[in-house]
Write a structure and sequence with these properties.
This protein is α+β, with helices and mostly antiparallel strands. It has a domain of 119 residues: Nuclear Transport Factor 2, Chain: A (Roll). The chain is 46% helix and 25% strand.
Length: 221
């Protein structure tokens, strides 16, 4: 494009030639005299962004990976943290419960082991000691059973028994009354025969008498 060389005041412009055709798009670069090629390309892109071809956006796996990274992983981390917190709370609650009720639970465990454990050569002494942990009608029933059945049979057939309590759980308790669920393992040997093992669960009821927790009821469940 050629501009007028001179213009007279108050008169029409005189020029050798006037070319009023539209300027090419590249003239924007020429006017600013940008010599650097990289800067020229950048300027062209800024002026004509609609002419620049953009790469297609990734689809498929890239999209799903972002979903996993930004949605599923934080949710999973929150779930794990919540589960860990719940387990920690449950463990603390169990510890507090056992600490709050140690005497009744321990009395139920010790009494059950004593009731179900004896040796054939010391059965009288063993079961007599066990009766000191009982009270009420259960004491009377246990005394009759051991005197009439257990002691004579243990001596005659050389029966020995050993009981353990791997787990115990408090079910209820007041100031003078408690109930405890026990899981009991008992090993019984008769003469020279191989010992036999049995597993069972019992609900032990206790009454507090003169400051001691004594077993008043013993029910298999």
């Amino acid at each position: 494009m050629r501009w007028p060389i001179s213009r007279r005041a108050g008169g029409p412009a005189e020029s050798e030639s006037v070319d009023e055709s539209p300027a090419p798009a590249s003239s924007a670069v020429a006017v600013h005299e940008i010599d650097d090629i990289g800067a020229s390309a950048t300027s062209t892109q800024a002026l004509e962004p609609h002419d620049v071809e953009r790469p297609p956006r990734p689809r498929g796996r890239v999209g799903w990976s972002r979903v996993v990274a930004y949605a599923l992983l934080p949710a999973l981390a929150l779930l794990i943290a919540s589960a860990a917190g719940y387990l920690k709370w449950q463990d603390a609650t169990l510890r507090e419960d056992l600490a709050a009720h140690p005497q009744s639970v321990q009395a139920a465990v010790d009494g059950t082991v004593a009731l179900l454990s004896y040796r054939s050569d010391t059965v009288d002494k063993d079961l007599a000691a066990a009766k000191s942990r009982l009270t009420g009608k259960f004491l009377d029933a246990y005394t009759s059973l051991t005197r009439d059945v257990v002691i004579p049979g243990a001596k005659q057939k050389q029966i020995s028994a050993t009981a353990t309590v791997p787990s115990a759980a408090m079910t209820s308790e007041t100031a003078t009354h408690a109930a405890v669920l026990l899981f009991v393992d008992q090993t019984v040997s008769i003469g020279e025969s191989a010992p036999t093992n049995t597993a069972s669960s019992v609900r032990v009821t206790l009454d507090k008498i003169d400051g001691r927790w004594l077993i008043s009821q013993f029910d298999p469940v």
